[in-house]
Amino acid sequence: MISRREFLAMGSASVFYAGFPARGFAQTRDLGKIAVIILEGGMDGLAAVPAIGDPSLVKVRNGLISSSPIKINPFFGLHQNFVNFAEMLANNEAAIVHATSIPYINRSHFEGQNLMQSGGTNPFALPTGWLGRTLDLVGIPGKALALDMPLIIRGGSDLDNLFPANLHGTLDLKGGMMKALAASYDGDVAKAYTKLYERADSQTTEAKRREAPALAFKAGQEMAKPGGPNVSVIRLNEFDTHSNQGRDDGRLPRLFSTIDEIFKNYKDGLGAAWKDSIVLTLTEFGRTVREDGSEGTDHGYGTCGLLAGGLLKRASVLADWPGVGAKEMFQGRDLAATLDYRAVCAAAIEAAFRLPHDEIAERIFGAPKLAHVHDLLFKTNA
Hints:
This protein is an alpha/beta fold. It has 12 helices and 11 strands. The strands form 2 sheets. Strands 1, 2, 3, 6, 7, 8, 9, 10 and 11 form a 9-stranded mixed sheet that branches. A two-stranded antiparallel ribbon has the order 4-5. Helix 6 runs antiparallel to helix 7, helix 8 runs parallel beside helix 9 and helix 10 crosses helix 11. The two termini are 29 Å apart.
């Protein structure tokens, strides 16, 4: 059984699809949808969701806390640029997990990004990703359509790579590749390749910039189609905010607006399929509690995860708050992580793909003692 992963990448952001039923494949169970927003660089969870009720945070981080946060509850606020996400919270379509991280403390982007995608604990030890292993376990067959496939959706099966990279002629859509692909598949996938071939005369090989929110809307539309992908991944970078991070405006607040639009556009694109979907953020680590000398933050540990979708039980902030006082910070500098974020990913898998937690913990994450938080976040599977 071969697993197929589809890749699209243009300009400042990338979107990847996975989990298409192939020709002749009869899906034996109703599956939901999972969309992952990868935030490369280490997203500052204390800026996105400040603990406004913690006097220690206000004392040591006042220059980086939003001046007018959206109040979630007496203890937590939300950066004011998350307007759409706040509305989802108000409608019981969103949740936040705070003081969380993947189990990695060495603060290297390369190692952390590998681990957040592989779902393991040892950098570069696993050749597959946690979503790829999930699709293998669910049993969705197909073919790989790119070599530049993110680790998170690489499965354990042998893959047929149909787009050899950097070889002479591979950018020429007038070749027989599009026709051959169209003939190999049914339905919307075949139509997509046919359109690519028919438009080849008018297309150039010059990549056009595509913004992440627009990609999210298109990804949602594709996921909502009968026989469409069960998984999509959008990858954003620029979260390594060592300088000029910004408080109410600036670099990081603009990125928050982009994340906010991605959530909204996923919902708009998914339409009726939103009720069976979950969208969640993923980042390699958080940032230091204290501001550095360049009005930014350095590599840290604990952060927060943002989730939205119709599979969520209700609006909530899931957090065992460790505090950010001098004696409470991890290694005297970072927000501690009190929950392995892989438990949140496992809960999303359980909700969308109806796999038992113990099987997910053992076979996907290799962590049989992984916390079971599904019932705290998601509706009970019928």
